[in-house]
Amino acid sequence: MRIAALPLVLFSLFSATALAQSLTVEEARVRAVPPGSPTTAAFMALTNPGETDLALVGGSSPLAGSLELHNHVMVDGVMQMRQVETIPVPAGETVRLAPGGWHLMLFELARIPVEGESVTLTLTLDNGETLTVEAPVERVQPMEMQGDGEH
């Protein structure tokens, strides 16, 4: 009886894995900052290869006391940084987190990240999944090219 149930159990495990939604993370990096800076930012490309829309809803890092999702918006002709609740990643699309657009802010730094080291970031998705990313610390220009502005 147990042997007969084994194929069903294995099929269930593989089916659940195949149906799971996830993002892929590429080009992750944390901005190098001068000594004494209480904050830094993280940037990356989030790709949703699935058929269901997903969203980044939070995150954490051992480097920071808190991590927030942010975007820049134009208000009365002035670009302003704003905290957001989610960063949507539509099915089949890539969303770039970059200077001047979507990004992660790391506050209350435990220490100043050193260029060349790696920072662990844990990203939380709206489906309950968490992704752990190692992001190298790099010098990042204030306003890198954002492409055509499409997400």
UniProtKB/TrEMBL annotation:
<protein>
    <recommendedName>
        <fullName>Copper(I)-binding protein</fullName>
    </recommendedName>
</protein>
<feature type="signal peptide">
    <location>
        <begin position="1"/>
        <end position="20"/>
    </location>
</feature>
<dbReference type="InterPro" id="IPR036182">
    <property type="entry name" value="PCuAC_sf"/>
</dbReference>
<dbReference type="InterPro" id="IPR058248">
    <property type="entry name" value="Lxx211020-like"/>
</dbReference>
<keyword id="KW-0732">Signal</keyword>
<dbReference type="InterPro" id="IPR007410">
    <property type="entry name" value="LpqE-like"/>
</dbReference>
<dbReference type="Pfam" id="PF04314">
    <property type="entry name" value="PCuAC"/>
</dbReference>
